[in-house]
Amino acid sequence: MRAPQQQRSSAAVRHGLELGLIGVAAIWGATFVTVKEAVKHVPVFEFLALRFGLAAIVMTAVFWRQLRELSPEGVRAGLLAGLTLFGGYVFQTVGLQYTKASSAGFVTGLFVVIAPVLSTVVLKRRPSGPVLFAVAVATAGLALLSMTHGFQLRYGDSIVLGAAVCFALQIVVLARYAPEHSPAALTVVQMWVAAVLATLVAPIVAPLSAPTHHDVLIGVVITGLFASALAFLIQTLAQRYVSPTRTAVILGAEPAFAGLFGIVLLDERLTTRGWIGAGLILAGMLIAELAPHRDTEG
After folding, report:
1. What angle do CA 212, 58, 172 make, to 5 degrees?
2. Of all helices (H) and strands (E), which one includes residue 53?
3. Alpha-carbon torsion 210, 213, 218, 219, what sign?
4. Rounded to 5 degrees, what angle do the CA atoms 81, 90, 49 make?
5. Cα dist from 62 to 27, 43, 91, 185, 234, whole Å
6. Which is deepest, 49, 203, 213, 297, by most CB within 10 Å?
């Protein structure tokens, strides 16, 4: 049994990293505007290749020693996490061609629900009652925020569902391996996997375009350094201590932050329904943050 001081120290670290995950959700929400402007000038997968390529190069330079010391099992874990991460972007991008953006946003956000299920099945870690309640509140908020014109199952929605599964799998993979390996090294491998795969896919999907527009250059720097390198490093580090279910609920706040930043940066407007949805998502995140922690939690 751990001493009270150790328990308090561990709880402080965990809560600090949960706050870090909130920052990650905010960064992803804020950079939605940046990405939206950048992909007007270059194809999506070319932008992903540039974004993750920059992240991979910078992180390799900074964390070269940790990368060299990563065990073969750690490399395999990083490869698997990177594959699920990139798979999420593929399913989401392809599915968006066949469904509405609002529907895609809701279906992608279902990783908040899928992650606890996978955690229970794969990791044998069952979420607590309060955390499951947080999942339900966040999912209801996601539906209100995204489903502005109702929800009808479309062909594209079933494709985007693959993105939700991939993102949930990435969370579960990190929950399994992040405590055993260097978070920095795992993140570097993830970035390289996403960068290489995006580079291979980009010329197949669309003709390459010279990334010279200032919106593209700014977008690559911001998303590469902050929304990729920093954000995924924080996520991987946090998942040494934070359960996959809590991680999913917190990261599920990205659409709420995207809506809020859209109001601030693009002068967009949320309906009353949208405000309620965003409030419920943030409430679910707060419930998960304040819920008592237990070692067997998913």
Report:
1. 110
2. helix 44-62
3. negative
4. 80
5. 21, 29, 31, 10, 15
6. 49
Provide DSSP, 164-218.
HHHHHHHHHHHHHHGGGS-HHHHHHHHHHHHHHHHHHHHHHHS------SHHHHH
10-residue mean pLDDT profile of the chain (298 residues): values are 58 85 90 84 93 97 96 96 95 80 71 86 79 82 69 70 91 94 96 97 92 93 95 94 88 79 69 80 76 61
Dist CA 167 CA 131 (whole Å): 19
Which tokens is 282 given? 């943030």
φ/ψ of 123, rounded to 5, equals -100, -5
In the structure encoding, which two tokens stand for residue 110, read together? 């279902």
Other CB atoms closer than 10 Å to residue 165's CB: what's the count?
19
Is residue 193 within 8 A of residue 82, CB to CB? The reply is: yes
**What backbone torsions phi and psi does residue 150 show, to the nearest 5 degrees?**
85, 170
- Diameter of the chain measured on Cα atoms: 60
Residue of 202, 260, 204, 192 lying closest to 55 (CA atoms)? 192
Any bridge partners for residue 150, and if so which?
148
Cα distance between residue 288 and residue 114, in whole Å? 16
189 within 8 A of 78, measured Cβ to Cβ = yes
**Letter for the amino acid at 141?**
G
Intra-chain end-to-end CA distance of the chain, in Å: 21
In whole angstroms, what is the distance from residue 201 CA to residue 170 CA? 20
